[in-house]
Amino acid sequence: MEKRSPRLGKVKWVVDCFREVCYGLRVIADARQLVIDRLRALQEQGTAMLPVDEEARLVLRRWMVEAKRLKMGLPPSAQVEVAGNAAEPSGEQAAVASSLLRVLEEVEQEEAGNAELDDPTAHAVPRFRPGGSTDEERWMLFRRLLPRWTPMLNLGSLREIPVFGQGDVRASLMFVGDAPNYFDEQAKMPFAGEAGKKLDGILAAMGLARDSIYLTELVKFRPALPRQTTNNRPPNEKEMALGASVLDVEIELVRPRAIVALGVIAARGLLRAESDLPLSAFRGLPLFHGDIPVVVTHHPSYLLRTSDMGERRKLWEDMLQAMELAGLPVSEKQRSFFLPKG
Residue ranges of the Uracil-DNA glycosylase-like domain (predicted)? Predict the structure, then answer.
């Protein structure tokens, strides 16, 4: 039997209630009210510990999404079964949703702190597992749970504002940077400063834009410094390791055909490579994250520090390779960019 980490009593009340009361019922407001009533009865009887399984947690997460919709005055989504045709939520339904939501939010908050390990050794890296049975739920839980994920909080070395990914969550091409800087944190978007302008120029030359790719950072929080203002630092190894665990979830959700690692830090984290490997060690090699090909190139900020056309051409050749791996068209004109004139 699979060993599970201990859960708080409230999680177990909810799961037991689902299994005892709601098995075989359609997921409607009346059934949810029965769940709430049963929870209260169990609590009054002093029940503290009941079984939990993955199936029940998935149902509860589905309920949480639906409860949010009802609380906002939206009709039920098509993914949740209802009696008859979907109708505008009544005041009673909204009240039930609000009550259930309070319970489920506490369940999800506990889930955020229960990191599962790849390996039960002392050096294992906690895996970020937001859960969810659909991509919509997984994205919602990803954004909701990451800012309070216990392993990340316990580092005490990152700032509090998350900078989430941007763009098409079904993009064939994914770009990964290292960590947010001051400008990214202020704008709450990746690559918001001068390096971002360089990246926008590269994308334009590729015939792309931010809304046609998926752009994210290895570490989603700006690395902190004492008395920090606009100064920045690169993420350390612990931050990169946890960031890579979070990035894995994004990659699973986006499912790109190719990934571009922007800079050596992003490459080391994405590929779990040695911390002293230079960028040159990654170039010219067939690299993969799982079965997804990876292209490693310079961070766009490198273009702010060099005017060497040879280096710019190398970066551009990396982008051409990424386009081909992603199945994007490449014109002859694009192939000639940054070539020596004459």
Answer: 164-320
Burial class (CB in 10 A: 0-12, 13-18, 19+), 86: exposed
* Three-state secondary structure call for residue 217: strand
Give the gyration radius of the chain's Cα atoms: 24
Question: How much is the pTM?
Answer: 0.68
Q: Is 32's pLDDT higher than 50?
A: yes
User: Which ranges in the chain are annotated with CATH 3.40.470.10?
Assistant: 157-335
How high is the pLDDT of residue 68? 57
Q: Which pLDDT band, with edges at 50, 70 and 90, does 213 fall under?
A: very high
Contact between residue 128 and residue 245 where contact means Cβ atoms under 8 Å apart: yes
Q: Which CATH architecture has domain 157-335?
A: 3-Layer(aba) Sandwich (3.40)
Helix ranges restricted to H, the chain: 9-21, 29-44, 54-71, 91-113, 135-145, 150-155, 182-187, 194-205, 237-254, 264-271, 309-325, 332-335
